[in-house]
Amino acid sequence: MTLLAILFGTLVAGIGSVWLAAALSFGVLARYTQHMLSLAAGALLGTAFLHLLPEAFESEFGAHELFLTLLIGVVFFFLLDKAELWHHGHEHHHEAAKGGHDHRHHAHSHGDAHGHDHGSRQVSGGWSVLVGDSVHCFGDGILIASAFMADLKLGFIAALAVLAHEVPHHMGDLAVLRESSGTRKAALLKVTLAGAITALGGLVGWWLVDLLRDYLTFFLVVASSSFIYVALADLIPQLQKRLALRETLTQIAWLMSGIVLVLLIGNLTHTH
What confidence tens digit (pLDDT) does each residue in 17-76 have? Predict the structure, then answer.
């Protein structure tokens, strides 16, 4: 039952986020792109602080151990981000020196994605994005599996949070791959296959967490550190722009909607 739930949750998060990204990039939902960033940030923070961390702190482990794990997790994801940026910089040389981004940062800047030069560099950049996205999706699958192993409710909430934050990432991937592939259909197929890797990560996560079940609490804290880092270091900085009062209030409303959505889903699943 748990394994089926993990496979379902990871496929919904992995492939569902790609199709929703395509609707936002190519379809009638394009005007809601910025709102998706706010919603994703709220969903990630809500999932980490209202569900994953409270579940972890109900274990027999002490607060000092768990907070230390949280800190190490945040630093680890920061270093991982730096490593990806460094690798991307070496891959694109002078182009990256002027402001290159990793596969996730393509997601939030369509101008940058369309602004890359065409030709062989663009094709290699497309493969780089696909590989990076696949690795990222694999990691998401492990985090989702960790939440499902603790509680089915937590698993579904974590899958929702991953779906929300992967949408803007996949939007950038689609923009880059559309340039290198030539068609929307080819780009969508490639990113969908990368998103499907989330299920493979879920399968590995199910096996790994089952093997290390005594340390499940620490898996939950690491998942929380990932969500917190992505929200605070990746999504929210893009929302820190000088906007008109109405736009600012709309932005805050979407951020709060992400938190409220996580709360409502948590209450509904708890009731059932």
Answer: 999 888 887 776 667 777 888 888 999 999 999 999 999 999 889 999 999 999 999 999
- Taking the C-alpha atoms of residue 180 and residue 198, their distance in angstroms, rounded to an integer, is 24
Residues 10 and 18: their CA atoms lie apart, in Å, by 12
The single residue listed with the structure tokens 């920061």 is 78
Prediction pTM value:
0.75
Per-residue H/E/C for the chain: CHHHHHHHHHHHHHHHHHHHHHHHHHCCCHHHHHHHHHHHHHHHHHHHHHHHHHHHHCCCCCHHHHHHHHHHHHHHHHHHHHHHHHHHHHHHCHHHHCCCCCCCHHHHCHHHHHHCCCCHHHHHHHHHHHHHHHHHHHHHHHHHHHHHHHCHHHHHHHHHHHHHHHHHHHHHHHHHHHHHHCCHHHHHHHHHHHHHHHHHHHHHHHHHHHHCHHHHHHHHHHHHHHHHHHHHHHHHHHHCCCCCHHHHHHHHHHHHHHHHHHHHHHHHHHHC
Q: Could you tell me the CA-to-CA distances from 110 to 31, 165, 222 in Å, in that order?
A: 13, 16, 30
Residue 51 CA to residue 92 CA, distance in Å, equals 40
pLDDT digits (tens, 9 = 90+) for 206-232: 999 989 888 999 999 999 999 999 999
| CA proximity to 256, closest of 31, 34, 38, 29 | 38
